[in-house]
Design a protein that fits this description.
Blueprint: H1 12-16, E1 21-24, E2 35-44, H2 48-55, E3 59-63, E4 71-78, H3 83-89, E5 95-103, E6 108-116, E7 122-128, H4 137-146, E8 155-169, E9 174-185, E10 190-193, E11 196-204, H5 211-218, H6 228-236, H7 245-264
Parallel strand pairs: 1-3
Antiparallel strand pairs: 2-7, 2-11, 3-8, 4-5, 4-8, 5-6, 6-7, 8-9, 9-10, 9-11
Amino acid sequence: MNTINMKPPLREEDIRNLNFKRISLSQVGIAQFMRRIDSKYLVPVQWANELLLSLQQHYYVVENRSLLIPEYYSEYFDTKEFSMYIAHHNKRPKRYKVRVRHYMASGDAFLEVKARTPSGETLKKRIEIQNNALNSPAVDTFIKKTIPYRLDELTQTLKTIFNRITLVSFDFNERVTMDFNILLKNSGQSVNLSSICVIESKRDKHHSSSRLIDQLKQQGYRQTGFSKYSIGCALLYNLKTNNFKPLITRLNQYKNEHAMVDASS
């Protein structure tokens, strides 16, 4: 996949000109679900503005240190055999992701573990990281308690950089993230997925209704599995990718459509 150079499809001023009510990051805590149902959708980035217009009367937009579209930087870890990637590719009922997520607006960093359970729930646990130091007793204990791997078995395999818009439903039962300007990197290569917007609805397991999902379904979009980590490994490493081929085909389709729109503008 070739890199496409373009201006960000969504800008701070674009979001500020919409009629979203704003809430601060500190007010989002009630919608930080540690036991939740996740639904992901992949849409062309050109459609993101239209979708936001349809949601502004139903969701708050989250402001983080005066930013509505902050940048996120993540470092992912796996075993030398890419055990966690293989588990995801093979759709094993129980699987894990391990990453350090850097919240660029605040300067905070957390070691995060996401566990997918056989029932379809996503369980997320995290510990704050000071000075980017992973070799601490607290981190070692955290890893031992949350995943079936030791810290010394893990190595950094992928970096991701992206911008995110976060919405919260007025009843605080749903949190929506819209990720774009996605860049995936390993030590020697990178892939720019600027043609897509990854939308995720994170809902409390007891409150499954969603205005966002209703809108996506009306436009013909269906839920799809999409992991920045997994697709990054599939595109940047010589690994088994059979189960990701339909998704890679779709990414190429959106890339080609995006390039045509960009060329005509």
